[in-house]
Amino acid sequence: MTTLVHGSDTLTRDALTVLQPGFVGTTAPDWLLRRIGEGLSSVGLFGRNIAGPEQLAALTARLRAERDDVLVAIDEEGGDVTRLEVKQGSSFPGNYALGRVDDVELTRAVARELGRRLVQCGVDLNWAPSADVNSDAENPVIGVRSFGPDPDLVARHTVAYVDGLQGVGVAACTKHFPGHGDTNVDSHDALPRIDVDLATLHARELVPFRAAVAAGTKAVMSAHILLSALDPRRPATLSPQILTGLLRQELGFEGLIVTDGMEMRAVAATYGIERGSVLAIAAGADAICVGGGLCDEDTVLRLRDALVDAVRTGELPEERLADAAARVRALAAWTQAHRARGAGSVPGAAVQEGTAPGTDIGLVAARRALKVTRGERPHTPMTGAPYVASFTPVANFAVGDETPWGVAAELERLLPGTETGSYGESSVDAVLAAAGERRIVAVVRDAHRHPWMIRALDGLLAARPDTVVVEMGLNEAEPRGALHIATHGAARVCGRAAAEAVVGTGA
């Protein structure tokens, strides 16, 4: 039952302040504006909220007309996870490509340009970068979102990314603490468990987070994972030992602790979102992220009232909720001060490739990240329109299936008449029949995790040895094909760089 509380009550305002909800639509619904007026301090944006840069700038301006210090957050990692360009594909390669190049100044420049575009649209908190060390190549949810499997490499690029974002006034939210890389379960679906000793955690998972804290990251996002060496009972998001003991006290982090999405099954299936949110704030979290799936007013009211009730019953100390709300307001004040100083460009400017100084940095990075391996058979650049066969795995929730990927669109631009088809576990014969006499470009994503993709590639190469293979996920499988191109990510610019390599025009 909903508890009736007065809109001006301090406790109610604090409960609203710690929520970071989402909503449906490309304009702000009345209920959201009303709750902002009552104390809601943050709003999370997803792909469903974005039609273009001008629309997004108008949306954020409308939110701030209601409250000028509202935090507008987004999950914009670049690479495979993009919300700004959810319908087109990102103008920036993701972390794995940047880690492959291993040029921290390039990473800093990419993050700075991405941050500049966010500022133009009125977004001031980015739930990025991922500081996870991708130590398990079978990981179904991190993968190319990580800078790589080496803790020191991940640490130095995490620091560069944080510097780039925050240098233009966008608060970085380093995630997923204390590290989601050594998992083979997606926390959107179930609770991952990491059973390594403390020495391993400190030497691997925690290295990038220590570096990010030292670099001044404004926020850290918790992971819904169970680390038995730290807390054998509760996932990190709900664990006082991990959020307060480790992150606050041992690592010395004083910024905002944000939860990963509370509707994710790793938490929601066991605790429910109301109790999960109360436990998270009690454990040391300051902001509850919700809205990827549950994105309506009822969700906000349920979480608000659960927090208020927990304080009134003594389950949640009032001072803990007040401290969490104060940290949200402190971050809002930091971002507001940056806006007042005119950080970034004018809101509403275009957020498309080729419109501003430095805007090509994403393509530069994507080209540098390519790894091209020639097979034993001589390869000649394609001059005629090929057939592109894309072998498509099931997308994880973080990446989603809205964002296009591959090389077909870019090859069509370079070689008009290019045709394409998408295949699951289909027979090689179907590809050969569709291709006819055209040369084949086979596009895969994480082929090492999908034996059916390996079988399909082997079958294609047996029939057509001149096939070009483009790997757009983790580059773990053995190179195969007359030409094997590893892009280290599936961003639009990665597809463009690969297409240039196919036709022999790469920079």
Structure, explained:
By secondary structure, the chain is α/β, with parallel strands linked by helices. It has 18 helices and 16 strands. Strands 2-3-4-5-7-9 form a six-stranded parallel sheet. α17 links the parallel β14 and β15. α1 crosses α12 and α11 packs across α12. The radius of gyration is 23 Å and the shape is globular. The N and C termini lie far apart (62 Å).
Number of strand elements? 16
Mean pLDDT across every amino acid position: 90
- Helical content (DSSP H or I, runs of 4+): 40-55%
Structural class estimated from helices and strands? alpha/beta
Helix tally equals 18
Low-pLDDT ranges: 1-8, 343-358
**Sheet with the most strands, sense and barrel status:** 6 strands, parallel
Question: Termini separation (Å)?
Answer: 62 Å
Radius of gyration (CA) equals 23 Å
Characterize this entry briefly:
This protein has 507 residues and is an alpha/beta fold. It has helices at residues 10-17, 30-38, 53-66, 95-101, 104-120, 151-167, 198-203, 206-215, 240-250, 265-271, 273-283, 297-313, 318-340, 361-369, 408-414, 428-435, 451-463, 492-503; strands at residues 19-20, 42-45, 71-74, 125-126, 171-177, 193-194, 219-222, 226-227, 256-258, 288-289, 371-374, 387-391, 419-423, 440-444, 468-471, 483-486.
